[in-house]
Structure formats: C-alpha cells, structure tokens
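Example record

One chain of 250 residues, shown exactly as stored in the release files.
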Amino acid sequence: MEKTVLITGISKGLGKALAVKFKKEGFNVIGISRSKPDFPVDDFYSADLTDFSQVEKVSREILKDWNIDILINNAGVGIYESWEDMSINDLKKVFDLNFFSAIYLTKIFLPEIKKRKGSIINVSSVAGKVYIPYMGGYCASKYALNAFSDSLRAELIEDDVHVLNLIVGRINTGFSERALGSKKPPSTPFGSSPEKFADAVYRAYVKKKREIIFPRWYRFFIWFSKAFPSIYDRLSYKKWNDHSLSKTSR
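Predicted structure tokens for this chain:
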C-alpha cells in the first residue's frame, strides 16, 4: 500500500533531503513551508507555521486530499544571542516554530496517524541535550521538543504509533545564516551532509528506533558535557568569546 509523508520546512536543507529520500523510497511526499520547493513533490501547501490560523487551514486541506502515514516536524529556526540581550519577540518566534508548530500539527494529524499506525518524526537537536552559551533560546525550544517526543511515545504505547526523535548536530545546510540574534557562531568541524542525514533517518524509521544522534560523534560531546560540566562551561564560553574577539579585531 502506498504511503504518504508530510514534511514541514520542505523547501530547503534537511526538509529537502528528507523529501528526496522518502520519494526515492516510493512515498507520496507532501510539504508545508513558506517558499515553494524547487524540486518535484506530490503536493505542496504554503503556510507560515508560526501563524496557527494558517496551520489549521492548510491542515484541513491536506486531510481532505491525503491520508497521512508519517508526519515529520522538521521546520525550525536558530537564535544566537545571550539571555540578557535576547528579544522576547525573537524568542517567541523560535518557540512558535520549533516547538508549538510541532505540537499543533501533531494534535491535528494524530487521529489519522493512529488509524494508519503510522509515525511521528521530530527533528530536534544536540542543543536539546546539551546547553550551549549564547544559544539558550534555541536549546530551550529543543529541550522542550525532546520532552514532547518522549512523553508522546509513552502515551501512544498501545496505539502502535512510532515516535522517532532526531538529535541533530552540525550539518551543512546554511542553518546559521538564517538564524535570529546578533551573534555569529564559532565554526564547528566534522559537519555532515543532508543526504547522509536523510539516509540515517530512513533507516531509523524502518527499524522503528526511538532516537538517533547524527552525526554519531556528537555522542561523545553530549557525554563530556554531562561528565565534566565545569570544564565544559569554561571551554564552551571561551570558544564563543574567543571567536567574537577574533571577529571584532578583523
């Protein structure tokens, strides 16, 4: 039986890679984003996911036209700013997109996904496992998304609905260029590609895994931050502030 996946933030980056991968595997691919994708999908709906009236409107249209087997909550935005200087309006935008849009869409599509014994896949972040200075707003939104994924999974244990949480590290998507806030992040080596990420996600979906960390080396980063928190605090602070000083001196 042909299956259908709905992907938010489909037009670029991880959303595009996931769409191409699931299409290659024989799925109908439906997308929601503000801009239209420049590659073929089976259906596309334009919406600002921080405007919940638009979310409700396009969701009704999708449910009228499609049976959704998989919801991938991928849309997200970063913010690089200290808590002291952070705009509350910017923080609200981050939470509306990264957290509340995922909650709202899941609530809308969950009855259909339960009927079809499908999957909910949430694109979270290493920043939802490890606090990072000057990324606190983004970290908070992803910590919240992780808690949502884990508690939702437990609530659906008798419904045969698969909930997969994706702990994503640095991938070459241009994410930082689209982030809010005044600070620029330090460079992080060992980034992977969106295509390798999409392959890993599809394998995890097929195996019905609970969670994956990608790239895998971030497991050590997460462990180190919890095993040696004081050292981690000093090193991460120094990395961000040395980076800022080097930018200023140029």
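Notes: Strands lie at 4-8, 28-33, 43-46, 70-73, 119-123, 162-168, 211-214.
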